[in-house]
UniProtKB/TrEMBL annotation:
This is Histidinol-phosphatase. It comes from Coemansia brasiliensis. Gene3D superfamilies: Metal-dependent hydrolases. InterPro entries: Histidinol_P_phosphatase_HisJ, PHP_dom, Pol/histidinol_Pase-like. It catalyses: L-histidinol phosphate + H2O = L-histidinol + phosphate.
Length: 303
């Protein structure tokens, strides 16, 4: 019974591929039984458009999001007898006004869940390219520790204001960090560490699920998001975890889930959690125990 609550399609995301229906069909073919759709929320400032969106306006993004929700509802109804679909969105946090926009968006479209993610620090995109990542470092006076501290401070603001059901790639800030003996890991810096643990404790306090995100391996990182020392902190503090492929098209569905199983075993994770939408529309958290997960993966080999 694999599942994911973090997925994108080329139909509604410029850096993904294929159609939303293609993602749903791929999930069914992988024998996925629960699928959370989570296209990116629209951005409202022209300066926040990515280079790949140079021909679009912010109004285009808002219209596309409405079309996404409409198509997701169609697919949920059409494939209801084959897969359980939840309709959500992946958040942004760029400026102080972002939070109010996200609250309005969730209410307007009656979304099932949020994947609480940051893709910016100081209003600047951090995961689009190494070049833009380094611009943030420069903006932080060359202090990578300061960049990481600002990331976790902005993440806390998002968590407190929105309380997203899923914590998206908790430590995405490490995506382009040039790990080497000459450049230490900022996540080992005491102040950065303190802020990360503060955020973990807050997310646990309101019942969030931390995704173990396999897309980190596509970026060449050693661990999934979150990296193993932070994941261990989450587990020791009683945090609940789920899994996601952060797919960007049908070709990515269940991407690296074989490796993810090894990661779960290495971390001694014996219980996973997932969201489920009841017949009355209420979303609840359900539990998948390790034996059930092991039986499924052994039988179906989704690699």
């Amino acid at each position: 019974m694999p599942f994911t609550f973090h997925s994108h399609s080329g139909q509604f995301c410029r850096h993904a591929k294929g159609s939303l229906e293609g993602v749903v069909k791929a999930a069914i073919s992988k024998r996925m039984t629960v699928l959370g759709l989570s296209e990116h929320v629209p951005r409202s400032r022209p300066q926040d458009l990515y280079p790949e969106e140079s021909d679009l306006s912010t109004n285009d993004l808002h219209q596309a999001f409405g079309s996404y929700v409409e198509e997701a509802r169609r697919l949920r109804a059409q494939y209801a007898d084959q897969i359980h679909i939840l309709i959500g969105a992946e958040t942004e946090y760029i400026t102080d006004t972002t939070i109010a926009e996200l609250k309005q968006l969730r209410s307007q479209y009656d979304l099932d869940f949020f994947v609480g993610s940051l893709h910016h620090v100081n209003g600047m995109p951090m995961d689009f390219s190494p070049e833009l990542y380094e611009k943030i470092v420069q903006h932080c006076h060359g202090d990578r520790g300061e960049m990481f501290r600002r990331y976790f401070d902005e993440q806390l603001e998002l968590l407190q204001q929105l309380q997203p059901e899923i914590i998206g790639h908790f430590d995405l800030i490490r995506i382009f960090h040039p790990y080497s003996q000459d450049i230490p890991d900022p996540l080992l810096e005491s102040e950065v560490r303190k802020l990360a643990l503060r955020n973990i404790d807050y997310a646990i306090s309101y019942g969030a699920l931390f995704e173990i995100n396999s897309r980190a391996w596509k970026k060449g990182l050693r661990d999934a998001y979150p990296q193993r020392d932070l994941l261990q902190e989450i587990l020791q503090r009683g945090g609940r975890v789920t899994i996601s492929d952060d797919s960007h098209g049908e070709q990515d569905v269940c991407m690296y889930y074989d490796r993810l199983l090894v990661y779960l075993h290495e971390m001694n994770i014996t219980r996973l959690h997932y969201l489920y939408r009841n017949v009355d529309g209420a979303v609840q958290v359900r539990v998948l125990d390790n034996a059930t997960a092991h039986d499924f993966w052994t039988a179906n080999r989704l690699t």
